[in-house]
Automatic annotation (TrEMBL):
It holds the Pfam family DUF5601. This is RABX5 catalytic core helical domain-containing protein. It comes from the Eukaryota. The chain crosses the membrane at residues 134-156.
Amino acid sequence: METVTHSSPFDSFLDRMRNPASLDLVRSIKSFIVSFSYTASNPETDGKRIQEFFQTMEDAIMDHPLWASSSDDETDNALEGLEKYVMTKLHSRTFASTPEDVKIDAEISEKISLLQTFLRPQHLDIPSALQNEAAWLVCLAMLKHCMWILMGLVIFSPAHLLSG
C-alpha cells in the first residue's frame, strides 16, 4: 500500500472521511451538525452536548476499521480534525455574542483605544534604556490582538475553547 503524505493532520482526517468505508461516521457527524443547528441555543447545555458527541465519536473512530491500525498520534489527529470540522460548522452558533456581550466588548475596545492614545513606556516604569519604539509598536499590536481575543474575533483550537 502506498503511503500518502498530508500537509496537515486535518487533511489526513478529511481524506479518511472521504473514504466510502467512513460513510457511517460522516452520517453521524452531519446528523449531529444538522440537529444541533435546529435546536434552540442554550449556552448551559450546548457545550455538554458537543462534548458528549465528541466522546461518542472518539469511541466510534477508535473502533472504526479505517483507524484500527492507527498510532495514538494519528487517532489524536483524527479527533482534532473532527473537532475542527464540527466547530467550524457550528462556530456562529456556539460562539455567538449576545447583545450584552457586544456592548461590553465595545466598551472594552473603547477603553483600550483610549489607553493607546496616551499610554507610553515611561508610564509603565519601563527604564529609558529599554524603551524602543519598534518594541512599543509590537506591544500595541499585541494589546490589540488581546482585545480581538476577548471579543472572540481570534479563534483558538476547539479543544482549547471547550476545555473547562
